[in-house]
Amino acid sequence: MPTAVLISFDTEDFVSPAADDALLRLATLLTSKGLRGSFCMVGEKSRVLRERGRQDVLAALLPHEICFHSRDHSVHPTLAPRCDEAGWTRGLAEVRATELEAMSWVKEIHRRDRLFTAVPPGSNVAPQTIWLYQRAGIPTYAGGFFGNRDGKLYWYLGSLQVPYTIGADGVFAKQEVDEVWKRFDAQAGWQTAVLCIHPTYTFHHTFWDKVNFDAGTNRPRERWEPAPARSDAEREALFERLSAFLDRIKADPRFAFTDYETLSAAAERKRAARRPSAWPAAAFAPLAEQPDWIEHRGEGGGSLSAQEALGELAARVTGDPAWREQLDPRRLPGPVDTPHALERNVTLSRAEVLKGLWKAQSELGAETQGLPAAWKLNGCSGGPGAMLAALAQLAQGRETATLKAGHPETCAGVKRSGLDGWKYGAWLYKPGFEGAQNLKLAKQMAWTLCPAEA
Ligand SMILES: [Zn+2]
After folding, report:
1. Distance in Å, CA 207 to ligand 1 centroid
2. CA 85 – ligand 1 centroid, Å
3. How far does residue 69's CA lie from ligand 1's centre (Å)?
4. Distances (CA, A) of 189 to 88, 95, 151, 152, 254
5. Ligand 1 centre and the CA of 397: distance in Å?
6. Ligand 1 mean position, distance from CA 31 (Å)
7. Average pLDDT along the chain
8. How far does the centroid of ligand 1 lie from the alpha carbon of residue 70, in Å?
9. Which end of the chain is more exposed for a tag (fewer CB within 10 A), N or C?
10. 201 has which bridge partners?
11. What is the pLDDT of residues 17-55, one digit of tens each?
12. What is the pLDDT of residues 106-138, one digit of tens each?
């Protein structure tokens, strides 16, 4: 299968009117080549396009996909520090209010019923935003935690995670097509190769937000300044190279252009074709050791997040199919609180496991709680990893499950996906920002993580 190529535009500079012209030029260039770009709009950018009377730009965007790139991108406090300070529940409520409003501007101004991806501004990835966009009907999230170095797709928090694999704007100001192609060519055979282009950066040689919102500070609105412009020669050379680069991709049968709508529909079909209820118990055996995603090949195969596997095994052991839906990561996030460490060694009968499941089931469903962090296991308390391990043992036909104190509660997917090495970029935030609370939550949400096919 050819590598799926997306051309994703972080369309964000609402300060410089020249950035509107850059956007017009890019949309027109793609249309002339018969390509469909994915324009990820900052709410405030869409709003100023209308305010400045840029009907020409709005018209040029009509044949392209319209996506979402936050309400106001770099105005402080930005999404990641807001979420980091507020935690899951309050963070969700706070950012939901502002983000949903801006999504409605974008839909209205660009005349769309639905937006097909959301992209974090800068490195402002926060699990709360991934969840709330998914709940608001945006099926994918691009340029987030996953796949940026290997082009892999994942499901996470119920949303298809699409990587950004190559920056394709500023590089053409400095590098010839052949040099950039070398890097792109190495991505042939990957699941996806996603070009990230900032329209403003084709006309300006510094980032617009570096000028106005550096290091956690807001320049007052009346003093916002456009970033310095590229020279005419530099800009023309950049567009010539970008154009030649797109032609080269188009002519190469190892790559096929797509958009977020098509990609998410394909992934959803694969997801719906999974039949985990028919998977052999052996497929779940590794879960007796540590929570993880599991994969099964063959008819009805695919992958399941640890949370889905817990739902599947609970349904099997209790005979109640509702578990599968109740733990579906599109309806329930991973644990919001720190999963409890199992207090002591325990041996559990089937009846004791069932008791623990029924107790938890009566409290299931709130997005403010997510997957319960504590489960009753024969008079002591353990995390969902302990319950999953007990179920995996019973599913193999054993009459009792035995668990050791301190059973692992961190999903193996944290490491397998590279999430453990992910860090916030530096220049936009106040010095020293690390987003420790966001990253801790992000790792807990790995209960909802598994590879995706498309
Ligand atoms: Zn951006």
Report:
1. 10
2. 22
3. 7
4. 37, 37, 9, 11, 7
5. 52
6. 23
7. 97
8. 9
9. N
10. none
11. 999 999 999 999 999 999 999 999 999 999 999 999 999
12. 999 999 999 999 999 999 999 999 999 999 999
